[in-house]
Design goal:
Layout lengths: L1 H4 L3 H8 L3 H16 L3 E5 L5 H9 L4 E6 L2 H10 L3 E4 L12 E7 L8 H11 E12 L6 H21 L2 H13 L4 H9 L3 E8 L4 E7 L1
Parallel strand pairs: 1-2, 1-4, 2-3, 4-5
Antiparallel strand pairs: 5-7, 6-7
Helix pairs in contact: 2-7, 3-4, 7-8
This protein binds S-adenosylmethionine (SAM).
S-adenosylmethionine (SAM) binds next to helix 4.
Length: about 210
Amino acid sequence: MFGRIARRYDLANHLLSGGTDFLWRRRATRIVEQWQPRRVLDLATGSGDLALALQRRLPEAAITAADFSPEMLEIAKRKGVRETVLADALHLPFAAESFDCVTVAFGLRNMADWNLALREMGRVLRAGGHLLVLDFSLPAGALRPAYRFYLHRCLPGLASLVTGQKEAYDYLAGSIEKFPSGKEMTLLIKANGFANASAESLTGGIATIYAASR
Ligand SMILES: C[S@@+](CC[C@H](N)C(=O)[O-])C[C@H]1O[C@@H](n2cnc3c(N)ncnc32)[C@H](O)[C@@H]1O
């Protein structure tokens, strides 16, 4: 599915989020910067926007960008991501404790087994290393019904105009509904070997950044 939408993925992201995705990745990058990591793994890097932002903000750090879609990685490379690795997040080809920081933006939700994925992230992180997960969530309160309407009724049609792939965006709405968020997600992260898990809600709760340490 990601291979099919790869070519139009960036355009669809920026149009359908009204450019807010830039702000979310910028906030994620600022958080990672505070940790001062030397070796960062950006998992499910897709077309590489977070990896690129990290490369720019942390010029001294080694940023490895991994994804299991060759089509997505090709685009990331073309955009300037320096180190790309074709890899499945559920079976990472890296030794234990290879990284100081693992980031995953809009990726964990799409993985077949969230627990296994989080444990793999923990395995490749050094003790004391940091995890950052950025993903969609459902806003609470009055915004929730309006957002759900947009998600289920408007987004798939609009996205199919941009990408020609309506099913991928029907899938997106369903996956956001099923994905744990807020406290539930911090508990899932802790249950998989992390400490100090916190959640920061963005844009009224449409997205959330989770941070934790190993
Ligand atoms: C919605 S895109 C997110 C891309 C990028 N991180 C961003 O912020 O735009 C999700 C990406 O996750 C990748 N992905 C999903 N499951 C994966 C897995 N098990 N291993 C590696 N990549 C995976 C897909 O190939 C896709 O590129």
